[in-house]
Amino acid sequence: MAAPTIALTQEALRRRIARHLNDNENGTVTGGSTTTATMTGDLARYPVTPQYLLGAELTHYTSATATQSRHITTHAVAAGTVTLTVQTWTLPVNGDAWEIHELGGRGFRKAQYDDAINTAIDSIADGYFTDTFSVYFGMERGGTNQIAGQPRHEYPVPASLNYLYDVSFLDVPSAAANPLGNIDTNRALADATARTRLWQGFQVQETGFYEWFCLALREVGTVANNLILDIMTNSSGVPSGTTVTDGTSDTITGTTVDPRYRYIPFRFDPPIFLDSGTQYHMVLRSSGAVDGSNYWQWAEDDDNSYGDGTAGTYDAATYTAVSGSDFCFAIFPSSSRWIHILPKRGWSYRRIGDDVLYIPGHYTEGTPIRIAGSTAIAEVSTETASVPIRPEYVEAYAIQYLLSTQPIGGKDSYFQAARHWADQILRSPKPVRNLPSNAIRVYS
């Protein structure tokens, strides 16, 4: 179920609401200073005796997309160029956007329009949702504090979900793997300069595209950095330092790694092309500085169970192999074969202390699991962000919200017309989305 595409941004919607109230002018500046803005065009029609724009709010969007709002202290026109004086602000650059509200001592400030838009969004947050469709983990069949070979059934529910719709698994066998059940010890990553990276050599037996590299990782402490996986070519049995260039892995937020070992899927989009029987190395690195209290561990097998590569470390200068050890991982080719697991019998949502997803099936070690669900719509926080619901509802609700705070709304003809238009729109039910029949509410 795809989310609707709404093209109207917060900036465009705010101006549309203000136009209902005859409270909007906008355009681009021709220049200015740290206390002025200049522009040409239709704004010159406003009289300067008296200064009609005096006290109105001018908002300027800088070249760096920052916004700054000031009230106009002087309004002058000369030879078709309008000069507006304000309190100190960032120097405007020719072509920057501007807009004016509170025209003629009436109307509302930009912040009030934005608040009204977000109040409209909040009013239906419980009935309108944004789809989430992602891979969160790989299935496990063994690991720490478990009997080797026994599957783990309970997995964390992804944060922020309001509903779960579907759970699917990638229906292809792994191309190379060293199961988590082989774990004997742990190897720290990014805890010291001796381990700024960890790496594992591997080979695939079929030439083709590979998309999923699932590594058995856990977090120690609370790591502020992120995780990145590179695939490198081989040089005398260790990574060459040269990445295979036709793919880039996802960046994994460090704090999403569980304190218990789990398979973390690093996806390459587009998939990465690998040759069969060729030695490669997956190189795991942190995005930031080392920290002896907050780091990750990669499950290590010191029985040398995997025969097509070895584990290794990197100390910011040299790649060094760890004799007789391999890390736990699983690699999967690119495929569109995702199999839906039936709810209730194949998966279910449970609350056992924390929110958990219960998947009792038996799947290939490290198999990527994909979850479909929804998150509640959020307030719009940037000028260019799209409003996530029908814009006419937001317009109508925002107008009602704004006018309910203004006694002048009963006297101004523009306000009266806007209120009447809003009343017509709001007679219809609030916009909602119909959830799939098997949707399960998540209580976090």
Topology (SSEs and partners):
Layout: H1 10-20, E1 25-28, E2 31-32, E3 36-40, E4 57-61, E5 67-71, E6 74-78, E7 81-85, E8 97-101, H2 110-123, E9 129-138, E10 154-156, E11 163-170, E12 176-178, E13 185-189, E14 197-202, E15 208-220, E16 226-235, E17 238-243, E18 252-253, E19 262-274, E20 280-286, E21 295-301, E22 311-314, E23 319-321, E24 326-327, E25 329-333, E26 338-341, E27 348-352, E28 354-358, E29 368-376, H3 391-403, H4 413-426, E30 440-441
Antiparallel strand pairs: 1-8, 2-3, 3-7, 4-5, 4-8, 6-7, 9-29, 10-28, 11-26, 11-29, 11-30, 12-25, 13-21, 14-20, 14-22, 15-19, 15-21, 15-25, 16-17, 16-18, 16-20, 21-24, 22-23, 27-28
Characterization of this structure:
With 444 residues, the chain is mostly beta strands. Helices cover 12% and strands 38% of the residues. The longest helix is centred in the first third of the chain and has 14 residues. It starts with 9 loop residues before the first helix and ends with a strand. 37% of the residues are buried.
